[in-house]
Design brief:
The protein is mainly β. The protein has two domains: 30-76, no CATH class; 80-168, Umud Fragment, subunit A (Ribbon). The protein has helices at residues 33-41, 72-76; strands at residues 46-50, 66-71, 83-87, 103-107, 117-122, 125-134, 137-141, 150-152, 158-168. The chain has a seven-stranded antiparallel sheet, with no helix packed on it. It has a two-stranded antiparallel ribbon with strand order 1-2. The protein starts with 32 loop residues before the first helix and ends with a strand.
């Protein structure tokens, strides 16, 4: 009688487990277990994308047709190894549509250009501002007239930490 291997009738019948379909054992780094579990529980971070648009004016009849499912991670993060997120604080960028509590998606590998919205460190303090580069002069511009521009001069410890690529709004 051979030893080892699969025994007929042993194990859980296919389709009766947590995922209602066949599964496979896989090695996962311990520090990624929570991320993998969240991914599986959210069915791949996908949410329904309806085919109709919602008017911002007068109400219109709803449409319950789901056109597709979108993965927000894939849509918002094009370069995962160089991307981080940080919540915005304050009201210095309200005219750029960035409000207190909004979540900023930031790529630290993109080249910051004139009029890029950036996360910068100025003398050890982090800030989100619009970068202005004109005639070798660098200025961090707030998008609220109640705040003053930050002029970057010699002796200022200045570093661009990344370029804001997306803003996730907090409406509640």
């Amino acid at each position: 009688m051979p030893r080892g291997g699969q025994r007929i009738g042993a194990g859980r019948p296919v389709g009766t487990g947590k995922y209602d379909r066949p599964t496979k054992t896989m090695r996962v780094p311990v520090d990624m277990l929570a991320d993998v579990a969240l991914f599986l529980e959210s069915k791949g971070y996908s949410i329904p994308l309806f085919s109709s648009r919602v008017p911002a004016g007068l109400p219109a009849p709803g449409d319950d047709h789901v056109e597709d499912y979108i993965n927000l991670y894939k849509r918002l993060v094009s370069d995962p190894e160089n991307t981080f997120s940080v919540p915005a604080s304050g009201d210095s960028m309200i005219n750029a549509g960035i409000f207190d509590g909004d979540l900023l998606i930031v790529n630290c590998h993109l080249e910051a250009r004139h009029k890029s919205i950036v996360i910068a460190s100025v003398d050890g303090q982090q800030t989100v501002k619009t970068l202005h580069i004109e005639k070798q002069k660098i200025t961090l511009m707030p998008e609220n007239e109640n705040y003053r521009p930050i002029h970057i001069t010699k002796g200022v410890d200045f570093k661009i930490l990344g370029v804001v690529t997306n803003v996730i709004k907090t409406v509640i």
